[in-house]
From TrEMBL:
It catalyses: Hydrolysis of DNA containing ring-opened 7-methylguanine residues, releasing 2,6-diamino-4-hydroxy-5-(N-methyl)formamidopyrimidine. Residues 2-118 form the Formamidopyrimidine-DNA glycosylase catalytic domain. One of its GO terms (biological process) is base-excision repair. Keywords: DNA damage, DNA repair, DNA-binding, Endonuclease, Glycosidase, Hydrolase, Lyase, Metal-binding, Multifunctional enzyme, Nuclease, Zinc, Zinc-finger. Its cofactor is Zn(2+). Residues 239-273 form the FPG-type domain. PROSITE patterns: FPG_CAT (PS51068), ZF_FPG_2 (PS51066). InterPro entries: FPG_cat, FPG_N, H2TH_FPG, Ribosomal_uS13-like_H2TH, Znf_DNA_glyclase/AP_lyase, Znf_FPG/IleRS. GO terms for molecular function: 8-oxo-7,8-dihydroguanine DNA N-glycosylase activity; damaged DNA binding; DNA-(apurinic or apyrimidinic site) endonuclease activity; lyase activity; zinc ion binding. The keyword Hydrolase applies. This is Endonuclease VIII.
Amino acid sequence: MPELPEVEALAEFLRKHAVGAVVGRVDVAALSVLKTFDPPITALQGRDVTGAARFGKHLALDGDGVWLVTHLSRGGWLRWTDNPSAAPPKPGKGPLALRLHFFTPEGATPAFDLTEAGTKKRLAVWVVHDPQEVEGIARLGPDALEVTEPEFAALLETSSARIKNALVDQSLLAGVGNAYSDEILHTAKISPFATAKTLPEDSVHILYDTMRTVLTDAVERSLGQDAARLKGEKRSGMRVHARTGLPCPVCGDTVREVSFAEKSFQYCATCQTGGKVLADRRMSRLLK
């Protein structure tokens, strides 16, 4: 799932490639992705693209007051093409969900595709006059790269959740997902099972600084990358996430995994839990 660094990089990519263009035809290949009907998707056609923004893990394109907002969810992605097919896509065929065509001042006709891999279709698109009309944006907590340390500490004090869950709770803190929370906790040497509101003051300070460093470094690695290469860039920078069974790059211990429901997280027992192996239960208390 794209998280803060990748979505910020996609927003910057659109600022460089789409801002200044005019929206042309909009092809909807999967009606299920549209979560709004007023204004209609056709309201974007003929509008100047005046900006692109990130709200947590939501990506938004400003069509001069009419916004296209998307949440790429677990399997979604944005693909830019300079030479899109002139023929409208056939609904229900392949991973394509939506295609947005552009006319640039230079006379080019590029487009971007919103695609989704896998059988579980969760990619969502809204067309709104104000991004705050999107429920998921309206309930976001402060952004992980904008929150101050006192605000961060105060947020944790309100949460009785495990710190792993607190970091990925978008209503508490916006932008961090499963992958970067693994990286942040590993770098900070904090157990995923630690309770947020009982973290010692020095641990909160370390966690805050680590969160900013990990996310800022990831954003810097991602900016300037072609949209198609961002996923690979994300994977290449991971220390423990999705590296189950491999050696920890810090201590050499085996990276372990806890699975629950449809997700899992990775950690290093030596670096984070004093050598204790966390219980791997599908009905983990992390679900609470």
